[in-house]
Amino acid sequence: MKKKRAAAAAMAAVMTVMSLAGCGASANGSSAAQGAGTTGTGAGAEENAATAQEGAAEAEGSAVLGNPEGQSITFWHSMGGVNGEALTALVDKFNQENEYGIRVEAQYQGEYDDAINKLKSAQIGNMGADLVQIYDIGTRFMIDSGWVIPMEQLIATDGWDKSQLEPNIAAYYTVDNTMYSMPFNSSTPILYYNKDLFEKAGITEVPDSLPAIQEIGQQLLDAGAGEVISLAIYGWFFEQFTAKQGAEYANNGNGRTEAATAVSFDENGSGLKTLTAWKSLYDAGFAPNVGKGGDAGLADFSAGKSAITLGSTASLKQILNDVNGKFEVGTAFFPKVNETDEGGVSIGGASLWALNNNDPDKQAAVWELVKFLVSPESQAYWNAQTGYFPVTTAAHEEQVFLDNIAQYPQFQTAIDQLHASSPESAGALLSVFPEARQIVQTEIENMLNGKETPEEAVQKMASDINASIEEYNLLNE
To answer: Angle CA(244)–CA(245)–CA(246) in degrees, nearest 5?
Structure first.
């Protein structure tokens, strides 16, 4: 079954390359693109697809850890800016201190979408990396590809204690009791609010649901807020609103018992409830259209225009820097859709995937790097520099982490919210999640612009996403 999926994945990759031919690679990713091998159509593409199929079949075997001594490995990642600087510092530290003389070349591949598309291209010809950072919504594709060595195999071979990972984070990347990748940069969305405006409006309780936000909306406007909530049109938020309702986004156990064949948010009513509450806030003048994408609502909040926004926990430091003391920033749990909701949140971010290059010595070197990156010391540093969760629980005992929490107490909200969520809120695995998010965002925008009712928007989301799922699953039969 996996061999067939790998073959189909390889063919899908050929199609992806053709469809993306008009897209230019970033300068930062140019060297990696050159090392990815030659791709094309016709006989050459068929030969490359066959090579990918053979490699995928071999990837089904057990991991073998060889001798990492003196190995050189390539690590593809998507961390730019401050996050990239922090990752570079960690890799440099590993290169200087590891006892085996392992040398890691960390290569920035652009944003998450760029990275996974370059990986698909590379697999047609040859492996361009040994370790890759892939975003959460690429998980199902990576599992189906057959190109990876499940981290569970490396963990078992080395006898590493998996219980040191945060269970609610590890749960996302675990399917059929197998953890396929190692969590690395994980985050959840939280609610940010302007404490000064809340105090001026006489509001003493932070709203915990969308209806509760609507109830205090006029008070915040009367207190001088330009917007009540700068709510970005973001597919991840729609997924979180589904999880908060304790509902499944997709069938087959959210794509975890087996690959999803359709979404569920239309049939279980969670999608309509989300859009109805969202549209109500919009119609009341409390949640204007501030644009699409996870960061779309942050600028208005940091400028003091909106009283509330939703954003990743990893945005905390950037928000505090941008606010720069103009007002006091408060944080709270991501809001529910209905007052009675009892669900939790699922993580976002990315994880580390070991590619199968049929080289036990490189596999051993990759595993040494992975262990270093998720060590308590590394994770405490990573958290302090970026705002991402420490994925290793012992990182909470590191002085660096304790000092960071003391300086930024708002981050405790993220930790409390993570621990308050159960593994059942881990979220969906969907083969076509990147496309699904774009579809969701388009239909929400259409709804807000009056082109569709909430009912019509949900049905259009479901039909379009289901069509993409069906096409993908046909290729992977």
So the answer is: 90
Banded pLDDT at 63 (limits 50, 70, 90): low
Nearest to residue 348, comparing CAs of 123, 46, 138? 138
Q: Which two tokens stand for residue 433?
A: 């999640």
Q: Whole-angstrom Cα distance, residue 112 to residue 142?
A: 13
Listed in sequence order, the residues at least 6 apart from 21 whose beta carbon sits closer than 8 Å to its beta carbon are none
Looking at 241-363, which runs of residues are DSSP E strands? 306-312, 329-333, 348-355
Please give the helix or strand (H or E) that residue 150 lies within, else none: none
Residue linked to tokens 């396929």? 180
Residue 21 in tokens: 């031919």
Measured CA distances, 158 to 66, 155, 368 (Å): 11, 5, 10
- Distance in angstroms (rounded) separating the CA atoms of residues 381 and 374: 10
Would you state the pLDDT for residue 123? 64
Residue with tokens 């569920």: 264
| Three-state secondary structure readout of 66-83 | CCCCCCEEEEEECCCHHH
Indicate if the pLDDT at residue 306 is higher than 70.
yes
For residue 267, the SS3 value is coil
**Backbone phi and psi for residue 47, each to the nearest 5 degrees, phi listed first:** -65, -45
Which of 183, 174, 303, 296 is CA-nearest to residue 236?
Answer: 296
**Angle ∠(290,83,186) on CA atoms, nearest 5:** 75
SS3 229: strand
Place of tokens 């079949």: 57
Residue 121: which pLDDT band, with cuts at 50, 70 and 90? confident
H or E stretch including 104? strand 103-108
pLDDT in tens, 198-222: 999 999 999 999 999 999 999 999 9
- Alpha-carbon distance of 183 to 338, in angstroms, equals 31
SS3 content of the chain, % helix, strand, coil (to 5): 55, 15, 30
Give 80's contacts (C-beta < 8 A, 6+ positions apart): 28, 108, 111
Backbone angles phi, psi at 335, to 5 degrees: -70, 150
User: Structure pTM?
Assistant: 0.85
Q: How far apart are CA 273 and CA 275, in angstroms?
A: 6
Estimate the crossing angle of helix 2-19 against helix 454-475, to 10 degrees: 120
Q: State how far the Cα of 108 lies from the Cα of 355, in Å rounded to an integer.
A: 17
Cα-only R_g, the chain? 22
Question: Whose structure tokens read 């047609």?
Answer: 124
Element (H, E) at 341: none
Tokens of 476: 């992977």
CB proximity list for 96: less than 8 A, separation 6 or greater: none
Kindly tell me the sign of the dihedral angle through the C-alpha atoms of 73, 74, 75, 80: positive
In sequence order, what E strands does 166-211 have?
A: 174-175, 178-179, 182-187, 189-194
